[in-house]
Amino acid sequence: MLPIMYGRGIAITGPTGSGKTRQAIAEISRALASRLWDGKDDTIIIAKHPRSEPVGKAEMGPYPVLQTDNPDEIAALVTWKTRAVFIDGADSFESPRIVNLYRELIMSNRLAYVIGNNLNWEARSRNHMHKLMALSDEFWSTTLPCIVKGCNNRATRSQHIGDKGQRKCVEHHYPNERFLKDFNQKGWLGMYVGSMFGDKTSEWLGAIGAAKENGIPHHVFKYLGDRRHDGDGNAYNLFGTGNISTNDKRGRIGAVLIEHANHMRQYLQKHPVGDIFIDEGQFIPGLFDFVREYVYKGYRFHITGLLRDFRIQPFGEDIPKLLCMADELRVGHGFCVKCLKYRASDSQRLLVGKDGERTPARYDEPIIRVGGSEAYEARCRGCMEWSDALPKQLYRFEPFDELRG
After folding, report:
1. Per-domain residue ranges of the chain
2. Cα–Cα distance between 109 and 7 in angstroms, integer?
3. 323, 189 in Cβ contact below 8 A?
4. If the chain, 405 residues long, is cut into consecutive pieces of 10 residues, what is the mean pLDDT of each piece?
5. pLDDT at position 5, please?
6. How many Cβ atoms sit within 10 Å of the Cβ of residue 265?
7. CATH topology of 8-168 equal to that of 188-332?
8. How distant, in Å, are the alpha carbons of 20, 58, 112, 136, 198 from that of 68?
């Protein structure tokens, strides 16, 4: 393990015209002011996609940049001295290698920043932005008021008007589909994400408690196959009742059992309410399309989920895409139980042998395996391990070492 754990990913996202690049420039300026970088060498690398503003100019504020649509050209600039890489217009890269680049920069103990629009004109993830967000540890959301006159809502979406984009709130944004409202309220999505044992459920249960105290009608849903918190021997059936609790058993509530997002559609047709709580969203197929539609219909969602699987890869497609659409993101990180030094960024999967000894899982195991503390631990990236050889890295960067030189 490296002597200092430094690497992490930071996603700077928001709608068009919300000040994302300005925030990135401010961060670069702070690096200069703190003498982490002299503005000349390869300690910090700044790159931008040609379609990023200002279009066609190899600059980012006062700083010269590498202008490219090829992630390999960015990777070629990284040396052992490189401690941070900024990629503006990350949502415009069409090559999936941008995801490899971002992940490997973080895994090689570097700071990596991706700057880009959270959504395209249709309120869907643009290119690979959802995967970049799922690999991130921090989310810096840039928001300004909706551009519609008299509207004070935060703009979270981009509308294509003529040859330009305008920032809009969900109330004034119109994708190609038109959804009739079921409730006279602004649709909203809050996400509670992180690694396992990051206390996501405690905050989420607190939001449910607030809904109860304020008399807000709501439903709570959970995945039918997740039986971790039910020690009562109850039979789990579709639309039956299961239990949800925190890992330390401090809180416990009942939830409606579902296997697919379409089951929530069916349930809401018979029992309509405007506030929906969903636990462990990464297990529920079809979740993104369901939530996207129902947010426009005036529903408010609170969803918990894992950012990454045990391989330190984005967990499926739905949770990463929902990250791009979220109005509020709360990230929970526990502490690494192995080194006891750093914040846990990921979930270590373990296998229990006949003798009770726990060993790391193989990298090529199936992604979904529902379990709790008997099968998983919270760990930092430096302490993550697998029992077999890992796939070869695409770029194989030399790790950044704070103490070198």
Report:
1. 8-168, 188-332
2. 4
3. no
4. 65 94 93 76 92 83 93 96 94 97 96 95 94 96 92 91 85 88 94 89 91 96 82 72 72 88 97 96 96 97 96 96 96 90 91 85 90 88 88 91 62
5. 56
6. 14
7. yes
8. 19, 9, 17, 22, 37
The pTM assigned to this predicted structure is: 0.92
For residue range 317-347, what is the model confidence (pLDDT) as tens digits?
A: 999 999 999 999 999 888 899 998 888 999 9
CATH no. of 8-168: 3.40.50.300
Catalytic option among 53, 59, 259, 280: 280
User: Residue 3 has what pLDDT?
Assistant: 36
List Cβ<8 Å contacts ≥24 apart for 213-219: 216/275, 217/273, 217/274, 217/275, 218/273, 218/275, 218/276, 218/277, 219/256, 219/267, 219/268, 219/271, 219/273, 219/275, 219/276, 219/277
SS3 state of residue 352: strand
Identify whether the C-beta of residue 39 lies closer than 8 Å to the C-beta of residue 33. no
Asked whether 49 and 68 are in contact (CB, 8 A), the reply is: yes
User: Angle between the 261-270 and 287-296 helix axes, to the nearest 10 degrees?
Assistant: 40
How many residues are present in the chain? 405
Q: What is the CATH code for 188-332?
A: 3.40.50.300
Sign of the C-alpha dihedral computed for residues 169, 174, 175 and 181 taken in this order: positive
Position 91 scores a pLDDT of 96
Q: Is 138 noted as a catalytic residue in this protein?
A: no
Q: Which residue in the block uniquely carries the two structure tokens 């197929």?
A: 285
Q: What is the helix (H) or strand (E) element at residue 20, kind and residue range? A: helix 20-33
Residue pointed to by tokens 């939530």: 291
